[in-house]
Each structure stands twice: as C-alpha cells, then as structure tokens.
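so im writing up the methods section and need the D-alanyl-D-alanine carboxypeptidase/D-alanyl-D-alanine-endopeptidase record in one place, dumping it here so i stop losing it
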Amino acid sequence: MHRRLFPRALALLALVATAATAGAPGATAESPTPATTRLRATIDAILADNRLAGAQASVVVVDTSTGQTLYDRNGDRRLIPASNTKLLTSTAAMELLGPGHRFTTDVQTTGKRRGGLLSGNLHLRGGGDPTMLAADYDALAAQVAADGVRVVSGNLIADDTRYDNTRLGPDWTWDDEPYYYAGQVSALTVAPDTDYDAGTVIVHAAPAARAGARPVVSTTPPTRYVRIDNRAETVSEGETSISIEREHGGNTIVVTGQIAVGDEPSSDWVTVWEPTGYAAEVFRAALHRHGVRVLGRTVLGQPTPETAHLVARHDSMSLGELMTPFLKLSNNGHAEVLTKEIGRVLSGSGTWSAGLTAISEYVADTGMDTGTLRQRDGSGLSRRNLVPATEFVDLLAEVRTEPWFATWYAALPIAGQPDRFVGGTLRSRMAGTPAAGNVHAKTGSLTGVSGLSGYVTTADGHLLAFSILLNNYLTASVKTLEDQIAVALAGHREGGTSTARVAPPSVPDTPRTPEGVECSWVKPITC
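--- predicted struct ---
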C-alpha cells in the first residue's frame, strides 16, 4: 500500500513557504508569530506543573489547513497511548470495512422437518455482533417459532468460529479480567444493555425488607449462566458498600459488603467466563419461552455446515452507527471485535494478528510512520502499545479527506456536552470554556497514563489537530492539564490580539477517575 504524502510533505512545504499563512504574516516553524510564541509559552507553563515532575509528556499541535506545527514537545517520543489507540482501530474499520458494514447473527439447520418436529441440530451462528441484546436473541427465537418449529431433536450448536478462541489480549493484566472494560472476545456474545458491553452481565443488589437478611440479588439479563454467591448483608443504617466480583476461571459472582434498608440497589457490570456459552444459554431460554424445546445438549464452538439452511436472522446496526457508542463510551470490546473483524474480512482470519496487520497497513497508507510505533490490541488496554504523538497528529490530519470523516468526527467525545451520546467521556470536562462544544477528541486512561488526541477550532477558525500523551506520573489525575492545553488552543488567534495566555487558563475541576480505568459516562465512574 502506498503512503500518502500529506502530513509531513505539507509540513515541509510550510517550513519553506514564502507566502504567509492566513492571518499570520511571515509565520514559519522557525519564525513563529507573536501569537504562536505566546501559545507555546502557555503550553510550556502548563507542562511545568508539579504533577508532571519526573513524568513524560509529549504534545504536538498542527494547523490542518497549512501543515504548520504550532507546538511540538517530545513529539517523536513513543509513549503508552491507552485508549487513544482506538483512533487507529476506528479509522481503519471505517475505511476497510466501510460505514455500512453490519454483523449478522443467524440460526440455521441441516435437519429435516416433519410438522413441528425438526430432526437434527439447530445452529446459532455468531457474526461478531457486540450489540446483541437478550431482546435480539428473543426475536431470533420468535422467528424460529414462527417458522413452525416446536421440538428440536438434536443439539443446540453455538458457532463462534468466525473468530479464533483467544478470548483476552495477551498483554492485558490479570486483575482487570472480571471488569466490564476487559470482557472476553467472542464472535457470539451478549450485551446486557445499550452501553453494549458485550460479554458482561449487570448484577443488582437491592436491600432486603429487614436488617440481617441477605440483599436481593438479580441480573440483567436474567440468566442461569452465572452463579451468585451472596455473602452481603442488609443493615438498618449505614453507608452502602457492596462489592460484586467474579471469581477467576468460572462464572461464580461473589457479592459482599452491606446495604442499608431503603437504599437504592447497588449495581455493577461483570464479565462472564466464555461468552459463547452465555449467548447459547440466553438463546435457549428464549426458545423455551416461545414454545420451542431443544431435546439435546448445548455444544460450543462447532462450525455450521455449509449445507445448512437459514431459519432466522438478525443484522446489527451499521458500523457508522456503532461508532457513536464505541467512541463516545470508549468501548474496549468494540475495538477488539473490530480488530478481529478486519482480519476476518480482509484475510479470512479472525485473529488479533491478522487484524492488527491490516490496521498497520492502513495507517501507513495515511502517512503514519509505522516503523516508529507498536500496536498490540485494538482498544489500548495493553501497556505494550507505543505511539508517538506526532503520528497521531499525522493520522488526524489525513483522515479529514475521507468520505466517512463527518460520521467519525461526530462520534468522537465532545467537550462539555452533558448529553450522554454527545459529550461521551468528555461530557463533564471543559464546560463553560471556549473548548466546550468545540473539542472533539479521544480520551485515554490507565494507571499513570493519560491521553487526549483530536481536534479543536481556534478563535479565528483554524482547525487544529493535537495529541497530548502523559505517562509515568504518580498523581491521581492529570486530566486538568490536558483540558488547560485544549482551552488554550481554542482561544488561540493568529493575527491581531491572541487570547492565549502565558499563564495556564482556568478550567473547571475534572472529576477523578479510579486508577487504571478508562472514563465512562454511565458506569459508576465519570471523568
């Protein structure tokens, strides 16, 4: 695949151009305007904050219309990007799969029909859809019943063979495994609600009517696939402190702690062990509700015969539509499914290796220097991902010309917008500043890692691409520093009086995020 010339070639032209950039007479990288000099001093002051003492900071800002670099601090330094990695995965998916791409989940059989009896097996074939809800499996079961099937003499076969059976990223930390942001990846799975955290259940613990009794524990969706070990207690008064965690290697979920009589239920998202079996159990229960009995057992991981014929089908939302929950919520599961789907579609291999190879080829075609970076997963959970900020900016500058850009750009979190499907992980950040409703950017968070990369329009209408990567800090959060930089960029004006200040601009406090967890707008955490 050829490499496009835009970001670096245009930047080079900007260095030698004799013509001035719009509104900035005589500006070059070596001879910046007074406004750009003030902007650089402001960002330098922000990065001098004590919270970054001993840490690593990489910041690059480029004017996308001219290619001029307005700021570059350690731009070529490889740092852990956390969920900024999703910029590579999402743009590659939009280009290689297309915004109209859909995932298909269907039911097939090779059995023979005689009245309501189906003599043979029923195959539930997964197409990788990370948005499959219990209601969607119920609709598939209703189609089977409407086809006249009442009894299936054979087995229910859960076919997840579109992707390989490697469920977790090889570099993911073991202690993340029970939590919703590290769900196991399968081509056949279930999401409990329209957050679409595939491969999870929501566990609810409500207080009993009297103190001393066990809380009432339930799940969404209702399922027998997980076993609840309820060790918690209802108390007459006191602070609710319910803990909900799945034991490693199985589907026993342990509920501990206390909840006071009359308190609201406590809920948490928990991953399941082996999502294929989870999907099969949810579908089998739906068949039973619709009057279809399967006499055989449930078998996991066998491919559907080519001679099978269709009984029922469900198509997902389009990939363009999926971009909104994916990027607004920073959904890790979506990133990993898309990585394997790219591998499956382009090379016939639904693996991380095949998908990452294709992503690397695509981003190289946009102008990223893939020899300077390493991508190990689709989501950014791996700490072995390393990407220089300048490479993110190259990607951001180039994809503006793609026909799907408007859809993708709108799906990025937008600063200071409280609506859950607009602001996303930036909904409570930069409100009441020039960056609010302006900054479209991808957040990133791991313990000691923070990132913000995207776009901001300056006070005089220039669209800037920027990347801020901060690593190895010891403080609880450095999000406010990212916000200060973004606000300074939003207030920047070339020509006339610059609104950028040497002192860091004021921004509202950013709610703290628990260590090691990507921000989310609906979970018990916010950012």
